[in-house]
Each structure stands twice: as structure tokens, then as C-alpha cells.
Specification:
Pfam families: DED, TRADD-like_N. The protein is an alpha+beta fold. The chain is built from twelve helices and seven strands. Helix 4 packs antiparallel against helix 5.
Length: about 325
């Protein structure tokens, strides 16, 4: 977002707030602007905050606090929403995400919104976090209100709303998947996301949350957790003295090898993916075969109709000759 966008935002705010509220706003900004400053408009107040380094494209805290007051007085929630949306776009959603890295046992919940008429409603991250005091507060409430135990929200991103959730254990991930399949997760997301504020911001009174978790991503996350446990077990085994055993027919000591399932699990993972691709290929071939069979049947039926018509025409001619 450029400085022009920031100035446009300030201009919108200055035009929306009535000048009669200026004295109250100056009182709110006490200590943030010069005592003897000549402020006679909302625009001048905002510029004075800039001069004192209390307002800028990347410094919006004071402005948001002031707009909370305006929001409480006049109900003009769109102003605070515009500021938060600008902040999110300015930071490229950096303030809404944690560093995920290469997460083990993580799945992504794709959340979309539809109106009562079935129309897709776009909800940005800034809109979803509109009333949140901070990202951490939002994540904490999300974890306690939506997710089953042992799962934590790690990232939030756009393209509808994407919530990346990491499971601490395999059982926790399985519980999350079970609640996704039986609709429990959707009901919690509906209750958590569809607030009165969201309805006002989108202009839709009846919103329905649609959630999707990719089946293959879930399977990969399960295998990643199994591999992680196997690797941890292997490390623990390597720290202990290797077990020594004596063969009945041999006086020499032999070392029992430490076995791990990691290679097997990775092979199993590859086989699952290969099996999935094979299923897709077989399904595609079956569809093509069915279409070809339908086309052949249509041709045969057409030939039969044509033959019957030709035979009837011949019969009519013979009857005419008689």
C-alpha cells in the first residue's frame, strides 16, 4: 500500500467524522499532539498526529483507539474496519500469521461463506479479525472455541479463509478429522465466525460457513506424525547401550540391530499417493470408456432407425407399384 492510499484513508476519515466531535477527539489525543497546536478540523488533527510521530502507514495504534471511541458514539464501524483492512494489506497479512515452517501433523481448513441465496460472499482476514484486540487473542479464542484438544491454530491466510491447524499427536489429529466429518467442526466455525459485526460488514443477514479439509492432506499429516514418533523412538534407542545377546551355538557376542519403521512408513506414504493417482486414472479411463460406449450405442441406434426408415420407404414404393 502506497502513501497515496494512506492519505486517501485519512481523507475518508476526516470527511466521515463530524467537525462537532473535534473537541472530544482532541481530548482523546491529549499528550499525542502539541498543547498549542492550531487544530480546527479532523484533517488537521490527523496531520498533527503525524508530525508528532504518533500516526503513519505502519503506526496506526492511536488512530484505531480514537476510532473505537467514534465507533461507540456513532456506530460507524466501517471506519475502524477500513483502517484494519489497510493495515492487513500493508503488512501483506504478516500480522495475521505465525511462521509455520515445515509443520508436522498440520492440515488446512478452507472456509467459504455463502448467503441464503447460495451466492459466494468474500470475507477477508481483516474482516474476520475486525473485533479482535490482537492476533494472539484471536488465536487463543479460536483454539478454545473451535478446535478439539491437542490442536492449535498456526496460520491464517486469504483465498477464502485458510486456517492452518497443527495437531500435537496422532490421536488429536484423528479427533479433528472425526469432528470435521460429523459436522461438529462446521457448527463451531459457524458460531465462531458468523458474528453480528460480520453480517453488518458483508450486508448479509444469513451466512453459512462451508469448511473443507483435503483428504490426502490429512493422510499425509497422519504419516508425518507416525514418522516423527518413529524417528524420536530411534533417537532414544540410539542413546541407550545396544543390547547384546549370545547365540546358543556361538561363544561370540553379537549386536542386535536397532530397527526402525521410518523407511517403511515413507514407502507406505508413496504407495498411498501412487494408489490415489491410479484410482484417478482408472476413473478417468472408465469415464472415457463409458462415453465411447454411449457414442457407439448412439451410432448403432441411428443406423437401425435409418435402416427401418429405408425399409419402410421401399415397402411404400412396392405398394404403390402394385
Amino acid at each position: 500500500m502506497s502513501d497515496i492510499d494512506f492519505n486517501a484513508l485519512l481523507l475518508l476519515i476526516s470527511k466521515t467524522i463530524d467537525v462537532n466531535e473535534l473537541s472530544d477527539l482532541k481530548l482523546l489525543c491529549k499528550g499525542k499532539i502539541a498543547e498549542d497546536s492550531d487544530v480546527n478540523s479532523v484533517w488537521n488533527l490527523l496531520r498533527e498526529l503525524e508530525k508528532k510521530n504518533n500516526l503513519g502507514p505502519d503506526k496506526l495504534g492511536v488512530l484505531k483507539d480514537v476510532l473505537k471511541y467514534v465507533d461507540d458514539v456513532d456506530g460507524r464501524e466501517e471506519l475502524l474496519f477500513c483502517v484494519k483492512e489497510f493495515e492487513g494489506e500493508r503488512k501483506g497479512l504478516g500480522s495475521y500469521t505465525k511462521s509455520a515452517g515445515n509443520m508436522i501433523g498440520a492440515v488446512t481448513m478452507h472456509c467459504a461463506f455463502r448467503s441464503a441465496a447460495g451466492v459466494l460472499v468474500i470475507v477477508s482476514v481483516a474482516t474476520a479479525l475486525y473485533k479482535a484486540e490482537s492476533l494472539q487473542d484471536y488465536m487463543n479464542v479460536f483454539n478454545s472455541s473451535v478446535l478439539p484438544g491437542g490442536n492449535i491454530l498456526c496460520t491464517i491466510s486469504e483465498k477464502c479463509l485458510l486456517f492452518t491447524v497443527q495437531a500435537e499427536t496422532l490421536s488429536a489429529l484423528e479427533t479433528l478429522w472425526k469432528e470435521y466429518q460429523d459436522g461438529t467442526l462446521q457448527k463451531r466455525l459457524q458460531q465462531f465466525l458468523v458474528t453480528e459485526e460480520l453480517k453488518k460488514l458483508t450486508g448479509e443477514e444469513d451466512l453459512k460457513v462451508i469448511v473443507n479439509i483435503d483428504d490426502q492432506e490429512y493422510k499425509d499429516a497422519c504419516l508425518d506424525l507416525l514418522i516423527s514418533v518413529a524417528q524420536a523412538s530411534n533417537i532414544d534407542d540410539n542413546k541407550q547401550p545396544q543390547e547384546r545377546c549370545r547365540r546358543k551355538s556361538d561363544s561370540d557376542l553379537c549386536v542386535k540391530p536397532v530397527e526402525t519403521d521410518v523407511t517403511y512408513l515413507r514407502l507406505q506414504q508413496a504407495e498411498c499417493r501412487l494408489s490415489l493417482e491410479q484410482e484417478k486414472r482408472e476413473q478417468l479411463e472408465s469415464e472415457i470408456k463409458n462415453q465411447s460406449a454411449e457414442a457407439i450405442d448412439a451410432d448403432i441406434e441411428g443406423d437401425e432407425i435409418y435402416g427401418a426408415m429405408a425399409m419402410a420407404e421401399t415397402t411404400d414404393k412396392e405398394s404403390g407399384n402394385v
